[in-house]
Specification:
Elements (H helix, E strand, L loop, with lengths): L3 H14 L3 H4 L1 H14 L9 E5 L8 H7 L3 E6 L2 H4 L8 E5 L12 E7 L7 H11 E12 L5 H7 L14 H10 L3 E14 L2 H10 L16 H11 L9 E13 L3
Parallel strand pairs: 1-2, 1-4, 2-3, 4-5
Antiparallel strand pairs: 5-7, 6-7
Helix pairs in contact: 6-8, 7-10
Length: about 260
């Protein structure tokens, strides 16, 4: 079931992050490159209709669009601020909508690309909609986040309070079972760890906020950390400092290549 409050929080966070997202999204671009490597294993010869589901600023799909040269390119996002950063015109058509309620005809899409967006949705609803709009033989290439995402931050905050500061994402097994239940064939599934890094915890948290990924549902802290709690948080996070002097924020990237057979 869709949680309207959670959806509103996520939409508002990404609206605010629209102008800062690309500058702070280095690890997100790396994951796009990982997803591109997966997609290249199963590229179709022609792509009449391409959907970038959860397109953000549109930058993440640039290379796959260049490879496919689709006749129709739909850039869909539910955050108007993100869509506003994409210049209109050409073959790209902007569409403000929810991936869980796609305003598209059944069997109308040949390729779906979705990088780091579907984790904000209810998996069964989103994948059911993907399967509905996919034509026979269509591909869906999806990057989402697994449960180890930002584990360092979760562990550090566990030393400070009991609030839920990090979202609990679904495991790979859940995504695979949900995809199959939706009628999609799993062509490939891959998990990779990718890390954003920064010299200080304050900078790391600022970068996470700049991409909108700090949005969570109920249970999060509603008041700022005091000085003592902040020092405790910094000390706990220091245990993760790397040999190169940086602090990591790990993203548990799950990469899926799916196909609609009929």
């Amino acid at each position: 079931m869709v949680d309207p409050t959670h959806q509103a929080l996520v939409r508002a966070a990404f609206d605010r992050a629209a102008t800062t997202y690309d500058a702070a999204a280095q690890v997100q671009q790396i994951i796009c490159d990982d997803l591109l490597d997966v997609a290249r294993q199963d590229l179709p010869r022609v792509t009449p209709a391409f959907l970038d589901a959860g397109c953000g600023t549109g930058r993440g799909a640039n290379r796959i669009v260049a490879a496919l040269k689709p006749q129709q390119h739909l850039a869909l996002d539910f955050a108007p601020g993100m869509l506003a950063t994409i210049a209109p015109g050409g073959a790209c058509h902007r569409l403000c909508a929810d991936m869980q309620r796609l305003p598209l005809a059944s069997r109308s899409i040949n390729v779906i690309w979705s990088s780091l967006a579907i984790q904000w949705c209810e998996p069964a609803l989103a994948l059911k909609e993907f399967a509905r709009v996919m034509a026979p033989g269509a591909r869906a290439w999806i990057a989402t986040l697994g449960p180890r995402t930002l584990f360092e931050l979760k562990a550090a905050f566990g030393q400070v309070d009991t609030a839920r500061h990090v979202i609990e994402f679904h495991a790979m097994d859940h995504w695979l079972a949900t995809a199959r239940h939706a009628g999609l064939e799993v062509v490939m599934a891959r998990q990779v760890d990718r890390a954003a890094t920064a010299p200080t915890l304050r900078t790391l948290l600022k970068d996470i906020k700049a991409i909108g990924a700090h949005a969570v549902g109920g249970g999060r802290r509603t008041t700022p950390l005091g000085k003592r709690a902040w020092r405790a948080l910094e000390a706990a996070y220091e245990t993760h400092r790397r040999a190169d002097g940086t602090l990591p924020a790990t993203y548990d990237a799950l990469l899926l290549s799916l196909r609609k057979s009929t």
